[in-house]
Specification:
Blueprint: E1 9-10, E2 26-27, E3 33-38, E4 41-46, H1 51-57, E5 64-65, E6 72-73, E7 86-89, E8 92-96, E9 107-109, E10 111-112
Parallel strand pairs: 3-9, 5-10
Antiparallel strand pairs: 1-2, 3-4, 5-6, 7-8, 7-9
Length: about 120
């Protein structure tokens, strides 16, 4: 039985999407895989997995910076209350990575602040 405390998504040595370093990403023991990109890097996740869960599985724990100070943020509450996990998904800012399920072909990107730069002016 697999240890559930270990990441479910690996990046070495099996069939899956190639990441920018040339290694292949896989989701261990699961053939129901979706491929997406994060900041241009090709990744894979289990179908139905949240974006936050998929990023955690790849060892990525911060994907947003604060408006004031540029401090790194990732998932905090994990249930959509705190808004620390905001990302851009297919060009749309302010998506909560803990609530949005990753879909085939999604382009996910880090976000600065609240993601609406024009509102800062």
């Amino acid at each position: 039985m697999p240890n559930r405390s270990e990441p479910s998504v690996g990046t070495e040595g099996a069939k899956g999407a190639k990441d920018v370093e040339g290694t292949e990403a896989e989701v261990e023991g699961d053939t129901d895989v979706v491929r997406f990109t994060f900041d241009g890097r090709a990744l894979a996740a289990r179908r139905g997995q949240s974006i936050a869960g998929a990023l955690w599985g790849h060892g990525i724990v911060a994907w947003r910076t604060t408006r004031d100070g540029g401090r790194p943020r990732g998932a905090f509450c994990g249930m959509g209350v705190c808004f620390d996990c905001l990302v851009l998904v297919n060009g749309v800012p302010g998506r909560r990575a803990c609530l949005v399920r990753v879909s085939e072909g999604d382009a996910v990107a880090s976000q600065e602040g609240h993601g609406h730069g024009a509102l800062d002016s």
